[in-house]
Amino acid sequence: PVKTLLQNDDLRNLSLSGHVGFDSLPDQLVNKSTSQGFCFNILCVGETGIGKSTLMDTLFNTKFESEPATHNEPGVRLKARSYELQESNVRLKLTIVDTVGFGDQINKDESYKPIVEYIDAQFEAYLQEELKIKRSLFNYHDTRIHACLYFIAPTGHSLKSLDLVTMKKLDSKVNIIPIIAKADTIAKNELHKFKSKIMSELVSNGVQIYQFPTDEETVAEINATMSVHLPFAVVGSTEEVKIGNKMAKARQYPWGVVQVENENHCDFVKLREMLIRVNMEDLREQTHSRHYELYRRCKLEEMGFKDTDPDSKPFSLQETYEAKRNEFLGELQKKEDEMRQMFVMRVKEKEAELKEAEKDLHEKFDHLKRTHQEEKKKVEDKKKELEEELNNFQKKKAAAQLLQSQAQQAGSQQTKKDKDKKK
Amino acid sequence: QLFGYVGIEAVLEQMKIKTMKMGFEFNIMVVGQSGLGKSTMVNTLFKSKVSPKSSQPGQEGRIPQTVQLQSITHVIEEKGVKMKLTVTDTPGFGDQINNENCWDPIIKYINEQYERYLREEILIARKRKIPDTRVHGCVYFVPPTGHWLRPLDLEFMRRLSKIVNVVPVIAKADTLTLEERAEFKQRIQEDLKTHAISVYPQEDFDQDPDDRALNDRIREKIPFAVVGADQEHQVNGKRVLGRKTKWGIIEGE
């Protein structure tokens, strides 16, 4: 018998008398991740022409090739593109998902649906991999959306109803970071009013946007100060303009230059800090431990799995699996039996048919045989008759010949007698 | 292709902070006959009194009739990294006259931990961080006979290397001279190869050429010949951990 004694249930803290070396554990973990590479997936939701692609180019300091979309898309569709970026020893597998055609239709009732479906599909793919028996999660290419940048049009008034509806549908599935696009069209005083209006509307409608984490001392302060500026008013630009004696990313207007990285001009730097430099890992973790878990729970409950049975004794997924499996196998067996029965019946029927046919054939054959025999008899009878006739004829012929020869003899004797007489 | 600094590498630091906050769990198991110095070795490794030594007077010095598993858990911290260390000891292993199937309780224990983890993982409403009691490594103590691996050693390592990372060590290596040690290691390596026992680090899990090169160097030295020492002595004015004998001081490190 095995006895497992767990001494010290309340964990004791031991003090070390020297350097052991397990302080390298975080580094080991990090090194493993760097060799495998990181996945980060951003979803950009916003109307056509609002500046999604430009902002992505600006954020990642590169040129993702894409042509601007047209405005006559029949519905919303999602276009995902993956890129591999490398900075020092970090390999990032970045996927940018774009909502093409969002906000262009006349009837926008169904606009949010393709987006929700896409997000769910990525969760589903991960769940399927996780549920596999032979699975390879450690090198699974994670396609789940880690951050959703929602582009708000710079009207200066308030959120559009489409925005509210869409964000409400997405807030329990993905980390939403709302941003005001093309912020260079809003004056400074209007911007402040616009931001507060948006935030209050979000709160009053119960939309859960991504909260920058404040529980970790190293990032609490910066996250708290940044949160105040939500939603970030951003300007994107990949063109450089000469400012003073440096080149900087900016937009040049006849009335001045809007510098992208100038915090007085727009919140681009804040967005970059928050999204990439401070909270990228937290965004990934929240996606996995909150949004994905919620999806998984709902999906499994929908499929009929439970954690506790009616007597509230915990039963395992395994037992449910077994039960369902047996059920399924039972059904399979039943179907198999049915098919077998049907098959047997058909065979019997066919057999009967064939027997009938065989009988028919036999009868026909017998009939034919009889007929043949009759014919044969007839022919033989005829043959006999003919033979008799022939015999008779031969006899007659013989008799006739005899008479003829006798008559000739008699005739020749007569001539001889006549000759003798003449002498 | 980036045209300027983006700041992606900050994610490494973020990850490090997160893992440090979560803490680590490490579970090792020590297997070997009594008297081979298992508890001393664990104490030396972690530089603290992790396991109570059974040779101390007053402890229950009797060898159990069957293999029992005893787990002790401690929390140790170093430079901000918290680790929950669990050491599972296996008194009674290999100590009986008839040692048949003495590995069964151990295999059962290891599988039970896997089962426990699986149960937690497939719950619908599962915990954010599943408590990990799975055995991460099993240190197997080979007595320093100097000859070959005994049938018990081979049987055990063969069965266990299929379900857990087995690290074989030569216990009380101070009873072997350096030449004897080298020969012993060589024979053990051949033995392991002949019986197709793959110990940690397993060749199948080498991830890339760098990994393989590093692991090959480690594999050359397997099994490690160790000397457990948890008492301090003075050597050349320095304090070292070692064993003091009449013919000299063996330094553990």
Task: Give the secondary structure arrangement, pairings included.
The complex is a heterodimer of chains A (423) and B (253).
Chain A: E1 4-13, H1 25-36, E2 38-45, H2 52-59, E3 77-87, E4 90-100, H3 112-131, E5 147-152, H4 161-170, E6 176-180, H5 188-204, H6 217-227, E7 232-233, E8 240-243, E9 246-253, E10 256-259, H7 268-278, H8 280-302, H9 317-422
Helix pairs in contact in A: 7-8
Chain B: H1 10-22, E1 24-31, H2 38-46, E2 69-78, E3 81-89, H3 104-121, E4 137-142, H4 151-160, E5 166-170, H5 178-194, H6 209-221, E6 224-225, E7 232-235, E8 238-245, E9 248-251
Parallel strand pairs in B: 1-3, 1-4, 4-5, 5-6
Antiparallel strand pairs in B: 2-3, 7-8, 8-9
Strand content of chain A: 15-25%
Stated plainly, the CATH topology of chain B is called Rossmann fold
Radius of gyration of chain B over all CA atoms, rounded: 21 Å
Shape of chain B: globular
Keywords (chain B): GTP-binding, Nucleotide-binding
Domain Septin-type G (chain B): 22-253
GO molecular function (chain B): GTP binding
Organism (chain B): Calypte anna (Anna's hummingbird)
Explain the overall architecture.
The complex is a heterodimer of chains A (423) and B (253). By secondary structure, chain A is of the alpha/beta class. Chain A is 52% helix and 16% strand. Chain A is built from nine helices and ten strands. In chain A, the strands form two sheets. A six-stranded mixed beta sheet of chain A has the order 3-4-2-5-6-7, with helices on both faces. In chain A, strands 8-9-10 form a three-stranded antiparallel beta sheet, with no helix packed on it. In chain A, helix 7 packs across helix 8. Chain B is α/β, with parallel strands linked by helices. In chain B, strands 2-3-1-4-5-6 form a six-stranded mixed beta sheet, sandwiched between helices. Chain B has a three-stranded antiparallel beta sheet with strand order 7-8-9, with no helix packed on it. Chain B is built from six helices and nine strands. In chain B, 32% of the residues lie in helices and 22% in strands. Chain B has a single domain (23-52, 64-251), classed as P-loop containing nucleotide triphosphate hydrolases (Rossmann fold, 3-Layer(aba) Sandwich), CATH 3.40.50. The chains are: A alpha/beta (423), B alpha/beta (253). Strand 1 (4-13) of chain A pairs parallel with strand 2 (69-78) of chain B.
